[in-house]
Amino acid sequence: FKGGDTCEYLLSSGRFLGEKVWQPHSCMMHKYKNSEAKNCLIDKHVVFIGDSRIRQLFYSFIKLINPQVKEEGIKHGNIPFEDKSASIKVDFLWYPEVNGSMRQRIKSWAEGSVAKPHIIVVGAATWSIKIHNGSNEALAQYKINITSIAPLLEKLAISSDVYWVLQDPVYEDMLSESRKMITNEKIDAYNEAAVRILNSSSRNSKAKVKVFSVSKLIAQETIMKSADGLHLPESSRDTNAMILMNVYCNKIMKPIDGSCCQPQPPLTLIQKIAFCFFTLSIFGYLIISLIHRNNYRKNKSCTDLESGEEKKPAISTPNVSTLEMLLHCFCKLGLIMTYFYLCDRANLFMKENKFYTHSSFFIPIVYILVLGVFYTENTKETKVLNREQTDEWKGWMQLVILIYHISGASTFLPVYMHIRVLVAAYLFQTGYGHFSYFWIKGDFGVYRVCQVLFRLNFLVVVLCIVMDRPYQFYYFVPLVTVWFMIIYATLAVWPQIVQKKANGSCLWHFGLLLKLICLLTCIYFLSYSQGAFEKIFSFWPLSKCFELNGNVYEWWFRWKLDRYVVFHGMLFAFIYLALQKHQMISEGKGDPLFSNRVSNVLLFISIVSFLTYSIWASSCKNKTECNELHPSVSVVQILAFILIRNIPGYVRSVYSSFFAWFGKISLELFICQYHIWLAADTKGILVLIPGYPMFNVLVSTFIFVCVAHEISQITNDLAQIVVPKDNSTLLKRLLCIAGFFSGLHFFSAMQDQPRH
Predict the structure, then answer these.
(1) Residue 360 and residue 409: Cα distance in Å, rounded?
(2) Where is the NXPE C-terminal domain (predicted)?
(3) Is residue 294 in some structural domain?
(4) Is 25 noted as a catalytic residue in this protein?
(5) 5, 228, 726, 752: which one is catalytic?
(6) Of 71, 531, 558, 666, whose CB count within 10 A is highest?
């Protein structure tokens, strides 16, 4: 840990990921769009002073504001640029040498009455080398001139951002005869002089000229692609312009995926209260543990010195009390949340941008597949979608999704479309699992609802408090929660139709189908009526849960993307349970699901359907168009997979315990990855061990999986305490929870007032 000044790293160090993606050391660089650049630079004046290389940087910079700009200005003259819509002025001033003329211009800003520019970018040296044929006298004069300019630049740096651009290396073999005297040895000497002289007299940290040395590193990798050996290729100067934009704009715009130059966000009131709560829990648990340990020692059996017999304690060791268990859970949770905060809110650990390559996605996929097959065991039961099989399904899907996120594979459309099917498959299981439970058990009690809601939402609520993020930010949990409530409402509303009642008369089956048709109609209407959907979720208090960036559009988009798949899961459960009830399928160990002929035909159709969907997804050209079709066709691959996995008896009778283990903590893995495996709210990668990417992934993954497993256990333990089976006690707990959320809303309103 070398301190939190990521600006210094951004300006001085980094490496290329692939050919064109620049990765600064220790932090993430945001790719600014034109609208963002304009918002940042509104009412600003930017000046570039120097030679043809600075002119290149000037053009790349103004193209971030207006991509239509053409490089048509006078080569050896001043070039103005203005964006009147945002009142932005960017000027290039032709001063190819560090001399008296340049000093006079800088002095007019530093000491005169002329308005000072907000950003000043200066750099020159190659002309001095060229004109004076690389003489030592020219270098000596350069040192004298820069010494006279340095105090003026430092004075300007108090109120403006001043950058001195070091000279890039040249590709000597490509230089024309008139430039042969510009050697890398000479350039290094000029750069060394500039670095030594600048800031040498400045004692005030605010009055420092920022040395833009990263351009040298970029040029070392790309100068061989130069057209003349002197000027950088376009992609390299665009990278330099983007770095310059990040240095200035990140602290203003605060982009999530731009951690460079961003100060650590201040603690909110709710975060401070949470910190105090967890601290008290830790101390409370330690005190109770010490008291119990002392009591245990006092009552511990001891040897009677006279008789030599062991005496039994009068009081047996007490069981762990509810209070101690509660404090123990919050103690562990407090330590875990501290790690979350340090990873993704404090500027303690490094963060890097993602970079996708096919090998970074597919090699880990093959690796976990081999591991999954290696840990194969027999299932306890051989029913379709038995518990072990669904855990296995959740497990391998979650691992694939994790690899998809850390590798940045969302940029590759075929992979994106297949991952969308995996997310849909999770929701399919939600429909299948909850429908099956309510249909078979007929349990619509409050206890069941509260247990499910607590297990789904506990971690997310804690993270919303600790990480200062809205509920909708963790979009998958709100999605699963709402669908659970829809399933519950559909089946619990009068008339309640369950399997026991339906066995008496077939008419009840038609009644249930009618309910499902009504549900499908509502889904269809809301998916094509954005206005109606937004009105429903814009009412308080729903708006507090489902708004993101001031509106519910993101929630509508997420809900719409997989709108039919939960219904498909419910329908599949109904058909499967009906077939099972009428003994139309065989679920014995090793037996095919249907007769051999029917099984073979269905298996062939399933394989063809599975491959057909994959071919269609791989041929997708446009994400928007494919997303429109996805809700209707994703069920094809899901059903095909279920049939392939369950029709052959020998396949249905085994499962991967490796995948099933991960499946049991799949929800925690999905949520925890946001902050302690990925970084910057999933936009980047957490770096615990810089310089060793593979070792870093191994260490961070190990911690991440252990934390997810621990949180799963904490959630289960707390669910037993917070959601008791006794109805009167449960009612009291619900009132306490309502009070908690009321207090949370009150403190949220208090901390939002200063922000507004």
Answers:
(1) 9
(2) 22-72
(3) no
(4) no
(5) 228
(6) 666
